[in-house]
Every structure is written in C-alpha cells, then in structure tokens.
Amino acid sequence: MDERLLDVDQYGVLRVPGMFWLGMAVLVRYWALMLVMLMSAQQAGTIFEMMGSKVPWLALAGEVFALVVVVTAGSRQPEAGRVWRWTWRHAHVLLAMTAACNVAWFIYASTQASWEFTRPQVAMAGFALLDVCMAWIFLRSTYFRQLFSEFPEPVKQ
C-alpha cells in the first residue's frame, strides 16, 4: 500500500504533498518570473516599459488554469463552496490544459526564433518536457487521482 495515502490532515482528507507544490511552481513559472521581476524592480511600471511587447501575455493566460488550482488547494476547508469543490475534482484536467498551453507556447516561441541551442532555448525545451511529465503524473497517478477526489466534508448547519 502507498504510505502517502495515510498522510491526512485534520479534516480526514489527504494532505497536499510537496511534490504537488513543486509541480505548480513548474507549471506557473511565467507568473513566478513576473512576480520576481516586479518585486525586484525599482518601479513596477518601468519593468513593463523595458519589456515592451515582449511580455508573454499568452503564456500568462495559459497558466491561469494552474493558478486557479493553486488557490483551490489553499481553500480545501469544510466551509469552501461548490465552485472550489468542482475545481478541485477537475484539477487534473485544468493542470493538463496548463501543460498543453505551456508546450504550445514553447512551440510557438521556437518557430519565431532561429534554433541555435542557446541556454535559454535548451532551458525552455527542458521546461516543456517537465510540463509533459507533470501532466502525465497528474493525469495517470492513482495517488493524485485520489488526492483530487478528496475534499473536506461541508459543514452541517
């Protein structure tokens, strides 16, 4: 038996593991990058002026699905509403959609530039491979299927 299935929280449901949070960091990397850039910049507006039209808005939009799952993971409380419960039950699909969007963004960006095997290009290819692996894990793992099926029981009134 998988010992991870014994790690439950005070509500009797599986605890969200560290591997999940690591996967989320990989899947929402453009949001994390933007947050780091905004926090390290002297002025928030200056960073956008310097980047011009190079802000990856499509990549940011594709990662919104995973951001919703991150917020939902933090909202696993008995008081949570039906929207949070529905989102958590379908989190594996939302995460696969995010991975697909990230891979599509990689393919689009690769077709717009000449491929010279520079470090950034190889890093992007590595992240695209990680996206595929994370989608595979979230969709195929029996542990994650069980995790996404569990949500604390609603409060009885």
Can you give a write-up of this model?
This protein is an all-alpha fold. It has one domain. Helices cover 68% and strands 0% of the residues. The protein contains 9 helices and no strands. It has helices at residues 18-27, 29-40, 44-51, 57-62, 64-74, 82-89, 91-112, 119-140, 142-149. α5 (64-74) crosses α6 and α7 packs antiparallel against α8. The protein is elongated. The mean pLDDT is 85.
Low-confidence stretches: none
Measured between the Cα atoms of the first and last residue, the distance is: 36 Å
Biggest sheet features:
none
* Gyration radius from CA atoms, angstroms: 18 Å
Per DSSP, the total helix count is 9
Secondary-structure content class: mainly alpha
Question: How many strands in all?
Answer: 0
Arithmetic mean pLDDT: 85
Question: What spatial form do the alpha-carbon principal axes imply?
Answer: elongated
